[in-house]
Design a protein that fits this description.
The chain is α+β, with helices and mostly antiparallel strands. It folds into four domains: 147 residues, Beta Polymerase, domain 2 (2-Layer Sandwich), CATH 3.30.460; 84 residues, cca-adding enzyme, domain 2 (Orthogonal Bundle), CATH 1.10.3090; 98 residues, no CATH class; 41 residues, no CATH class. The protein has 21 helices and nine strands. The strands form two sheets. It has a seven-stranded mixed sheet with strand order 3-4-5-2-1-8-9. It has a two-stranded antiparallel sheet with strand order 6-7. Helix 7 runs antiparallel to helix 10. The protein is elongated, with a radius of gyration of 28 Å. The N and C termini lie far apart (82 Å). The relative contact order is 0.06.
Length: 410
Amino acid sequence: MAQEETQPVLTKGSEGLSLPQRQALADIWRILPDARLVGGVVRDLMVGRTVADVDLATPEPPEQVQQKLEAAGIKVVPTGLSHGTVTAVIGAAPYEITTLRRDTETDGRHAVVCWTQDWREDALRRDFTINAMSRDKEGQLHDYFGGQADLLAGHVRFVGQAGLRIEEDALRILRFFRFQARYGQGQPDRDAVKAIADRVGLLARLSVERIWSELQRLLSGPAPAGQLALMAELGVLQALFPQGTTLERFKALIDLMPPADAVLRLAALVQGDVTTLARGLKFSRADEVSLKAFTEQPVPAPDMDDAALRCLLSDTPASILIGRTWLVQADLNRERPQSDEEKAQFADLRHRLATMDTPVFPLAGRDLLAAGLPPGPEVGRTLAHIRHWWQQGGCVASRQACLAYAGLVS
């Protein structure tokens, strides 16, 4: 008789997670019973948010963690052994498991760590009290710094002394605004605000890649306008964008509830040469092209007919044209609040652009050569002339009609 498969025993500690996540945790806790859920997963379970990434900590050293998991048949990726982290891959999903740590050296960017058995000592090196809680397999919450009360009160507060936490890693300046936007209520923590204002210069130590990674999350997250205003008040925004920003335009855009596209929102915020800015922040090529394209002309208008929109689409992707409509609408909204009718007209325009087929010019140089045009510069000039005629006609003329217009067919 075939042996019946045993199902993992689900524990209280995994309540609130998806069934695949609970089953994976049951396997991990069977192997590492002292491990706990840590950080964002604990915080988000407490407020009822869907959890995408499940992170754990354990007092056991990383090599031992890896050996135990692999002995149980679990795939392990040594993602950061020097920092105590291995990743268990269960059901194609990653579960990061990090050994309890304490910092021995910090320089505002990187830390040298050593292992510890002390959960409180590990929690002390985290940024905010709401991120410093842990939950064991029995569902017991371990909260050393009042994170639960802060979460319920909407109080984003650094663990211990705010200044020390920032000096350990200056990126926590930007993280404060992101977490304040998502979890904060009312006035921001006074100690945090003062510590940030006094240490804005530490941002210069950070790599631009880390800065943009954090800014993307802030810009694409909830309620960014208020946090950017606070950043400007404390000098943070000026340190990041010395070429200048336009907070009024950014707020006007956010008030319209645009897509959570960080590059589009950045285009509404910044002034000056966006190409230089994009390269300074080491954007991907795609993001650099998008940022520049969002700020260019032409811009579709609600009163354009389908022929005019097809003409624009023949030169520019719909996503870029739609982005431009958001920015021009923000400029209008900045002058005066738009009526519901005006908002509806822009919404209809974006729907038309998103659903309209992209016109494709039906000719190429080889078609002109095949029709008898001799090779040379005249081929390119003729092709451009025909394409202009095709666009002016609404991008509907066929290949045969285009050749006939050029007198290349009888």
